[in-house]
């Protein structure tokens, strides 16, 4: 090949372009039809959610929060089929109890069977008499000095010890030391008499009752095996008349052992644990036994111990009899109400006072037990409204009824509570002076009222006034905010915005007068604000209240202010379905919150935090609208000054200003478009990412060109050319390094297509000023010559140069005089462009040589055909240099690839139907 091939562009009129085509079987843009058959029982969205569920991992910190909320609400909202499954519901309730009732105090455990304790001597016995004598000796040894007290245990250590006792029972049972297993169970039951750490007692009951359940199951299974062998028979199917005598004798033996326990508490617990074993003797005696045990519990002097043993009795009863056990729940609840005043006995008050427990903390220890008894009672009595009236009447009759009242409100369904809401509020109001659980009662009542579909306006106002008088008199700020949260939701649903604003003003006054920093209650205040935002009918109206923003900004610490601002913005944009916000007060309030979020970003902020903050601010910017375009542009100027730290916000601002420029094209003079172009030109350099800067320079230049702001468009394009060498090969996105070559290739193609309609600067002596600068810039770009991006860009430049030599360009922009009209295809202009084309063509030949040296055969073949196609399509084949170069490129492609390749074949087809010069070249190629 010659070292240089002067490029000459064909001078032709606009004609039909012959484009190489490939035969395909389907249209490349045709969408594949997918037939989805929806389930008869599920909607399409539900099916899609099920498909995506395995890929959506819940935040582990939120998983426990949602689990606890679900568990606590289980007894309130449970379907009819699950009401009989008490075991399942109780297991869910156990988890919430263990999570709630914890302690940091030191605990004590008394046992002789923990590792390091009593060592039992195993001796062989020869006859039955000696065996019975040995067992009696073991029982007598229970009272000897082998029992050890382990003190100073942490909560986790106590739990570990209890699990160890459970394992010791199983080991003793498996090693035929059943009396030892019995003794361990007795010692576990005696631990339930210890209330030295009351705060932990509900959790201790759960742990130890599980041990007793396991022991009872071991005894029951042994008796079942003695009578029925390995048959899989259930409790309901056991007929005492078919039980073998040896099983009955063994059962009586266990019952006698249980009856020989001297202390009342372990004897009752063990009798309840072994209650199911009575079925081997007489099934008819079991229910009277439950009634007898219900009465026996009256002898328990400690009301806290007594109510939890009632819970254990009801649990065992429901396990054995299912729905038939519900009357026992009602009986035990009645027994508890009859003995209710024991809770407030001076002895109990002295004990919890010595443990530094407050009155409400002490009363809350009874709540899980009372809730469980009410749960079974409600299932037994289906006329809930009458039952509620009956219980409320008892609350009026007895003193200090707040514990019972709180449990009643939380246990009953919302419809019944709503009907009796006025009566409940009256009870609370009458006893408000001495109530320590008033906040729980009011809060629970408010939660029920939030479920009211519609409430009479007058009644809603009366209820709201009553609860506010009660709540505003509370001395504890945390309790006040706990009550405020559901009741403000009720006000949002049922009352007007004026009422809501009055409540918010009162809230601010209360928090200020309390004398405590609002930052101590930032999470509760945030929950209140979230409730308001989620349930007020018109969320924009909230910002028009004079008390809302002062409440939001009441917290002062940076972290609390930021969290509050993010919460408000997030919920607001979830609720606000309108794409535009035109109220200046709302816009100003949102901007205030956005500034708080933006100012919290610093050098140590994680990427996700910055991304989340940027999304919130961008949504605010996109939604804000001012009728006056000048005011809108000034708003964007203020946003740029306020949000310089976040690139995502600056990018959104540039897009917004470009949109504003197109909006003002028809209604305003040229000055608005120039001001917008200047805004973009000044804003883009603030971005850190070079690729983003290049993209926005191109977009801003195109918008300026569309508005006939030639100088501003040229400035943006010139800046773009200067940025291209700084674009990195990889950018960090979503924690991954992603290549930029594909995006840069698209960017350059878009840029070159825009340069076709950009007129030259008349003040410049250089022809095609921006394009010539771009060509020179390619020499400084750190791209390898064999990179696809490099030689593809050269081919695009060659296409542009050839098109710019034509007398009429393929496309124009209205009101923009392009170079075809400006120069009229004058010889000097065309000659300059052909010189550029010659240099580009020469550089492509150098690339071909570099590809050959690098053994890149496929790339070399593709580039040779691409350049060959441009010569025959755009070059003047009458010139020997052009036809000679085309021939050489064709021969090079044939050496590298079979001539039957699709691309080469399609090019030959075009030559056959092309102009005479093309056909001459084809003949020449055939000869060669």
TrEMBL record:
- Keyword set includes Cell cycle: no
> Where in or outside the cell is it found?
Endosome
Q: Which residues form the signal peptide?
A: none
Isomerase found in the keyword field: no
State the Gene Ontology BP annotations: endocytic recycling; protein transport
Keywords, sorted A to Z = Endosome, Protein transport, Transport
Its family remark reads:
Belongs to the VPS35L family.
Q: Could you name the Gene Ontology cellular component terms for this entry? A: endosome
Write down the species.
Pieris brassicae (White butterfly)
- According to UniProt, the name of this protein is VPS35 endosomal protein-sorting factor-like
The protein's matches in InterPro entries, at most eight in alphabetical order, are given as:
VPS35L (IPR029705)
- Its primary localisation, in coarse terms, equals other
